[in-house]
Amino acid sequence: MVKLLMPVVFIGMLIFFNACQSDSAIDNRSIATDSLSIANGGSLFNKNCSGCHSFLQNSIGPSLNGLTTKVPAKWIARFISNPQELLKSGDERATGLAKNNSLIMPSFTGLDEKQLNEIISFLHTYKQGITADENDNSIKNPLPDTIQRSNLAVTLQQITQAPASSDSGKLPLTRITKLEYQPGTGTLFLLDLRGKLYRLQDFKPEVYFDMAALNSNFEIGDGLATGFGSFAFHPNFSTNGLLYTVHTEPAGTAKASVGYMDSIKAAIQCVLTEWKVDDPGSKTFTGTRRELMRLDMVSIIHGMQEVTFRPNTKPGDEDHLLLYLGIGDGGCVENGHPLLAHSINSLYGTVIRIDPAVKNSANGNYGIPPSNPFSTNKVASGEIYAYGFRNPHRITWTSKGDMLVSNIGQKNIESVNLIKKGNDYGWPIREGRFLLNPLNDIGKVYTLPANDSTYHITYPVVQFDHDEGKAITGGFEYTGNNIPSLKGKFLFGDIPSGRLFYVITDELKLGQQATIKEWSILLNDKKQTLKALCGSDRVDLHFGQDAKGELYILTKADGRLYKLTGASN
Q1: Where are the alpha helices (DSSP H) in 201-279?
Q2: Are 52 and 61 in contact (CB under 8 A)?
């Protein structure tokens, strides 16, 4: 089976299709209606598209009910296959999409004509169309204030470029998402979601770990939660040789240690693995593995995408040698199963903390730290450290020891959360500081209810809406010594657009909103944007940090790694 996944199959054209109802000549009678085509299309849709689209309500993308009654099938197929080509041709619909959305999906030329037609056959079974809500009292612009641009300009130096991991030669060339250093040596390692972990020897990428070669069940794709999601070296790696990874495998590969009722189909499985390296000093990995946890996921979006240890702990500290994981809701809310999230009985939409050296968990493969907030609650999941997240994709700590989680939102709010153990951060009954109805249209937010305090929700300390960006990328507080003007600033940004933001770390306090400022970059003494540098409207921005606290920028579209080397006003 071809394993090509469609992230944000942003049949986001679909936001635009209502404006195209003048196509009175639309004739989609040639769409196949046989049961086999529809079944195959449904399978492709559930695996590749359901994370961002449904037929019940607007999701990351809009509801797809009635799409084929508004848009010609040939156009739908062309757009999925190569939206950039349609844009360059001046196509009216594609141009309208570009004007109305900051997210345009990459080309999927790997999907063959048969697969495209089968997806369209499945879409064609939903012909109801979208009806307007006459009693809509949702907030159209949740945060009307505009993020102000500061005078801060940071100098970048390109230090390397990851090898292209796309066979097509088209953007994105790579899917680099994480840069982390090895404890003890300080050596930097760079992760490509498509399966390679690179060791940067003198900033030259050399393959250290190849997930596909080590695991025949590895799911390689372009889904938003698929691939080699994250990695973390044990703080004592130089002596014990332990490395932790998360990756995806096809649904049903093995029995899940965390799952749900059989009536809800799984799209993928997320797997946490402990690897024992034969020689911690080796330039390439050889060793053995031990599976710690396996989760079923409803869709291909926001799965298990973060694994990390708190840095610089010492014996006696509560967090010493304990492993944190950020687990998204797996698309369960978008797909009509909100009860799987927002519960101390479920790991979906949580930050968990486990002890890999102990084996008192339900599956006997890891430990539940006694200091966890629900460790003694017999009806709760003792792994949970905090809950109520949609996609807690990055976890970091400030120099004062505060734990921060960057949470990617649905249709309105992106946020940074100050974590207190045991607290509820609201999803899916809240998005940012706004009310959400998980049983209705989760693309809409409302004012908080009068009795909001009775819900005991912990709200973000930083938030911006989708006028400013579409998906927050978590960053770091600058703790290095090379750029004094960055001291005391938490730097982060927007994944798709590559916009760069910061807040003052001292302003990160519960009950308050830190003021966001935008900052600029310079390369070769010339003011630049990341969009211009990588030659793509979708930058796929991420941040990294080295052992000395210096910061780096990763751009997935072109695989480039930049170091922040100076700053001026």
Answers
A1: 211-214, 237-240
A2: yes
Q: What is the mean pLDDT of the chain?
A: 88
pLDDT at 50 over 90: no
Q: Which two tokens stand for residue 438?
A: 């998980």
Look up residue 389 and give its two tokens.
């997240």
Rounding to the nearest 10 degrees, give the CA dihedral for residues 251, 328, 496, 420.
Answer: -160
Strand runs (DSSP E) across 436-516, as ranges? 462-465, 472-477, 489-494, 500-504
CA distance 432 to 259: 27
Burial class (CB in 10 A: 0-12, 13-18, 19+), 107: middle
Residues 6+ apart with CB under 8 A from 425: 386, 387, 388, 389, 405, 407, 417, 457, 458, 459, 460
pLDDT digits (tens, 9 = 90+) for 140-199: 999 999 999 999 999 999 999 999 998 777 788 999 999 999 999 999 999 999 999 999
At residue 273, what is the residue type? Answer: T
Beta-bridge mates of residue 55: none
Q: Which two tokens stand for residue 21?
A: 């109802």
Measure the CA–CA gap between 174 and 167, rounded to whole angstroms: 10
Q: Are 389 and 326 in contact (CB under 8 A)?
A: yes
pLDDT in tens, 388-434: 999 999 999 999 999 999 999 999 999 999 999 999 999 999 999 99
Q: At a CB cut-off of 8 Å and minimum separation 6, what does 326 contact? A: 304, 305, 306, 307, 351, 389, 391, 392, 393, 394, 395, 405
Which residue in the block uniquely carries the two structure tokens 């006028």? 467
Q: Which amino acid is at 459?
A: Y
CA 139 to chain CA centroid, nearest Å = 25
**3-state DSSP call for residue 544?**
strand
Structure tokens at 293: 């946890």
Is 257 in contact with 294 (CB distance < 8 Å)?
yes
Look-up: residue for tokens 């490509």?
Answer: 192
The 10 Å CB-count burial string (b at 16+, else e) for 345-369 is: ebbbbbbbbbbbeeeebeeebbbbb
DSSP string, 372-434: STTTT-TTS-TTEEEE--S-EEEEEE-TT--EEEEE--SSSEEEEEE--TT-B--TTTEETTE
Q: Are 505 and 400 in contact (CB under 8 A)?
A: yes
The values of phi and psi at residue 491, to 5°, are: -100, 135
